[in-house]
Amino acid sequence: MNNLPLQLISEEIILDKYAKNQERSLDGTQATDQIRKRVSKGLSSCEEDQKHWEKAFYDAQVENGVIMAGRVNSAAGTDIDATLINCFVQPVADTASGYVGKRTGIYLALQQAAETMRRGGGEGFNFSYIRPDGAKVKGTGSKASGPISFMQVFNSSCVTVESAGARRGAMMGILNVNHPNIREFIAIKETKGTLDQFNLSVGVYHEFMEALLNDETYELVHTAEPNDQLIEQGAFQREDGLWVYETVRAQEIWDLIMAHTYGHADPGVVFLDRVNEENNLWYCELIDACNPCGEQYLPDYGCCCLAAMNLTAFVIDPFVQDTPESKFHWDRFVRGIHTAVRMLDNVLTVTYWPLEEQKNEAESKRRVGLGFTGLGSMLALLGLRYDSQEGRDFASKVSEVLRDEAYRASIELAKEKGAFPLFDKEKYLESKFIQRLPKDIQEGIATHGIRNSHLLSIAPTGTISLAFADNASGGLEPAFSWTYTRHVRAEDDSKNSYEVMDHAYRLYKENGGDPNSLPDSFVSAMEISPEDHLLMVAAIAPMIDSAISKTINVPEDYPVDQFQDIYLKAYELGLKGVTTYRPNSITGAVLEVEPSTPADLDTSADRKIKLDKVPEPALNSLRWPKRPKCPDGNDSKTYLVDHPESPFAVFIGDIVNGGNKSEPFEVWVTGEEQPRCVAALAKVLSTDLRSYDRGWLNAKLDSLAKTGGIPFEMKLPGQSDPTIVPSDVAALAMLIKHRCTELGVLEDVNDTPLLDALISKKEPKSGTDGTLSWTVDINNPSTGDDFVMFLKELVMPDGTHRPYSLWFSGNYPKSMDGLAKALSLDLRVLDPGWAAKKLRSISNLPEPQGDFLARIPGEQKQANQPSTVAYVARLILHRFHMLGLLDRNGYPVNEMGIFKKEEQVTGNKAGLKLMPGKNCQACGVNAVIKKDGCDFCTACGEVGSCG
Predict the structure, then answer these.
(1) Type and span of the H or E element at 582
(2) Is residue 579 helix, strand or coil?
(3) pTM of the entire predicted model
(4) pLDDT (tens digit per residue) in 219-256
(5) Distance, CA of 501 to CA of 282 (rounded, Å)
(6) Which residues of 317-342 are buried (b: 16+ CB within 10 A; e: fewer)?
(7) Which domains does the chain have, with CATH numbers?
């Protein structure tokens, strides 16, 4: 055991997620000790000799590496009616109400799921029993709507119900590969926000895999009768009574699964036949679902009762050259395993059960799941590479000891407390897994029975590892990054930043190691090939009676064909399932399985315009990134615009920029009755005046000169007669162009870096299919503004989303049409830093008597907004932040070099690379990926739900 003080982030997690009542008033170390004492007391309350086991349970946590699951640490020993169980599986039958056999009807299942999530448990479901879209509903004479429609109802319920412990429940949805609606299920997450509370997996059978490997057809079937139209189209009933809705090529379905998993990180694949072949209780249950984290395959109403052994706690003399076996404290490991099994068994006795069915299921089988955490960190401490045969061999040995000692401990418990009620000696001993156990264990089971039907699971352990294991790598994963910075917002809206170190990295540094020259054994997740990830799972899987939660991280540019091979290799290696994660925007473009002719613009399936190629970024495009300092003043030309409703003055300043030639660099608008928002447009155009690209400036001014509004007569400079000007915006553009022409800056237009960096020179049009936009309602009571802002978005070739056009509808200052037109061009510059600079410049622009109270973008509280136009700018900056393009302060996350110099506020100073992903509820950036099986934000370091 090491004596390192708690990392600050560990202390915060402990106090925020696990400490209760007076524990919150202590420091992290004291709170940890009190949590362990509370847990020990709570779990020993069912023992005859409570004092003895209370001490034993405490010692196991302090000295022998036992870490109970998050729910146990959070609620054990408290008076909260929250379950100590992480997750459950819930049956769903093909009926709206009542039961079909022992399976629960849809709305009763929904009610039970809501109660379970309210008490703190996640849920897994197999929706395959629900009849497909188009099946007959004989009772009403209508046709069925299919399982996905009901999954939407479950998803909405999960959003609404806040679980105990203040996080919303997680859900797993499975549909079997032979279900007639399997295509829709696979593709469902193309639409952003659809089933976003679910992780999804396809239940795959040997029959399907054989058809795939032999390039054969496969039948999509169900017990429910199709409607007459489907029968006319070829649906028929087989001899076994099942209805065949469609016959497809297995390869077609497989390609669809791979395409969406590659592009959206869902669905995963579960090999259901293999799950049941390896099930110790093959004789009394059928398993067709798993919990949201995927570490336990469970029957109806089955539960995850989890704990983990911290493997780093058993390393002796880290970084000292010796055999790994001699540097691992096997005796303490064994002692910890035996105590942990008893603690888990007691969890089933003392926990609060949301449903009586869950209690009955647990008591009849007493299924538990002991695993480990910190495998990657442990191997680094022992000098073993995660992706080496030596590393796999040692992991296999550790897993074998874990397996054997857990079963021995459960036999001892059976001697004392009796075997689980559904134990059938002859049939239990026939299990494939039990037959792999040493003979003495099989004989012990035959003689004394066994207390728990299942004993082993490797869970993600993301948060408990961070809190109670000094951020050792989670579960069986390698370290994702050795160090990163985590940003946490405080109650006063300030931001605290913590350096977070992997346990092995921290020990190496504390022992005097050079962090810039890490030992060869320090290999992180993204440095390991997918095949080596799989081989580690294969080395451990034979020792695990339930399942292993493993995420195989692959680079964003990982080839499609090799990505598909991961899943085939997993099947060949005999694994029960596999999950991959490729960094992507989740809602971005989906992989096209068949090659197609590329086009400049297309409309993707989620109805966002898709861009297939991008230009090069514009580099060093500003003469003056900021307004040049002019201590002696500068020349300017003033024009009066005699607008009939709101006259105003325009000042165009110029400065000699080397040589003798004056160049315009800023525009100001003033006047007591000036048109609203024209001043904001002038400020935006000042940046265009300071660019090197005169072709860009000319194109923008020509575009604005056509902006409509309230037309009026105006005598332009150098003209004897007045002309009709379309609007105040047009007048501003015409005056700026006149002054630029007068100074000769539009004469020699050579390179046009900004124009060349437009992702599309004209606004992309979606056609009749339409496109999606980010839409916000804006209401400023001070000025009477009440309108909708539309920010149209497209999908870039890398899958990220980009705003490209700004529109307004409703009651708003009409001068804002010019601002929208100008900013729409800016939004289409490849480097988001260009538009960001414009938006920052007007995000604090006040308006006399135009300030108002509105919700802060991305937050729940309100604040005073300087003006309507400033609020619009803040909203657009927030959207860029949500998409992971800008940090919270409106500066680019990834610089493309558009400015020579620019003061920056960096959002992530860690060694961790920001990766596109789902939206982070903590910081708002689309940067949540799967790390160690858990949600992890690469922008702020937030650890979210697992699975």
Answers:
(1) none
(2) strand
(3) 0.70
(4) 999 999 999 999 999 999 999 999 999 999 999 999 99
(5) 43
(6) ebbeeeebeebbbeebbbbbbbbbbb
(7) 1-86+305-553 (3.20.70.20), 89-277 (3.20.70.20), 595-616+764-885 (no CATH), 635-755 (no CATH)
